[in-house]
């Protein structure tokens, strides 16, 4: 019997996104971040490929929201389309409180 892990909500992905970017050397493309987060969370192929709408996956949709909130909180920047980097503030924090990010990210 295969037990699927429920893909975390966008706010539960804040710390995995930050961890993924640290592991990627401080910056990465959307697809690199998506792959690294899936690896960190040990998601199955079925979970990774679960469709949200059209051809977009649930994981990529939620990670997009996560990155945007982290950007609004000053932890990420995207210098070019689809490429994200930790800011100096983002490099300083190990973990974030999702409630603080949601408040500051609005």
Output the keywords.
106 residues, alpha+beta, 3-stranded antiparallel beta sheet, two-stranded antiparallel sheet, 6 helices, 50% helix, 16% strand, globular
Shape: globular
The rounded Rg comes to 13 Å
Q: What is the string of SSEs from the N terminus onward?
A: HEHHEEHEEHH
**Sheet with most strands: strand arrangement:** 1-5-4
Tell me how many strands there are: 5
Q: Helix/strand-derived class? A: alpha+beta
Number of helices: 6
Let me know the average pLDDT.
90
The proportion of residues forming helix, as a percent range, comes to 40-55%
Q: In whole angstroms, how far apart are the ends?
A: 41 Å
Question: DSSP strand (E) fraction?
Answer: 15-25%
Which runs of at least 5 residues are low in confidence (pLDDT < 50)? Answer: none
What would you note in describing this structure?
There is one protein chain. This protein is an alpha+beta fold. It is built from 6 helices and 5 strands, in the order αβααββαββαα. The strands form 2 sheets. It has a 3-stranded antiparallel β-sheet with strand order 1-5-4. The protein has a two-stranded antiparallel sheet with strand order 2-3. The model has no long low-confidence stretch (mean pLDDT 90).
């Amino acid at each position: 019997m295969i037990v699927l892990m429920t893909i975390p909500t966008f706010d539960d992905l804040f710390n995995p996104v930050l961890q993924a970017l640290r592991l990627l050397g401080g910056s990465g493309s959307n697809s690199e971040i998506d792959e690294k987060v899936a690896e960190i969370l040990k998601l199955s192929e079925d979970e990774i490929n679960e469709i949200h709408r059209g051809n977009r996956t649930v994981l990529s949709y939620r990670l997009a929201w996560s990155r945007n909130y982290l950007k609004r909180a000053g932890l990420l920047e995207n210098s070019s389309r689809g490429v994200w980097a930790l800011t100096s503030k983002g490099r300083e924090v190990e973990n974030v409180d999702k409630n603080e990010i949601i408040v500051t990210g609005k």
